[in-house]
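Our example pasted here:


***
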Amino acid sequence: MSTVELTKENFDEIVSGNDFVLIDFWAEWCGPCKQFSPVFEKSSDKHEDLVFAKVDTEAQPELAAAFQIQSIPTVMIVRENIAVFSQPGALPEEALEDVIGQARNLDMDEVRASVEEAQKEQQGGSE
């Protein structure tokens, strides 16, 4: 499966419309991004049930800012509209596969519960 180019126009539709999305934040001038790109593409061929998407941080600065992307490449995994993984740096193939496996095995009910708990604590602390 080929990767999808994410833009501010299609971001919500693609991320909300799919349960598992891997996002590669990158830029054309970035050497490590170019090194990571074939690893990301190869993984997209292995996992045809997942959505692999790329955000060009130069063309989509609003998306990069919204996710507080400080360095590229950054890989992010969004499951059921919750970012469950985000790490800057070009991951080797084995590490990317490991992260995908861990994200697949997450109990999303537990993840949602911990997100709700964190939000409650945040709200309680700001009153």
About this structure: The longest strand covers residues 20-26. Strands lie at 4-5, 20-26, 51-56, 74-79, 82-88. DSSP finds five helices and five strands in the chain. The CA atoms of residues 82 and 112 lie 8 Å apart.
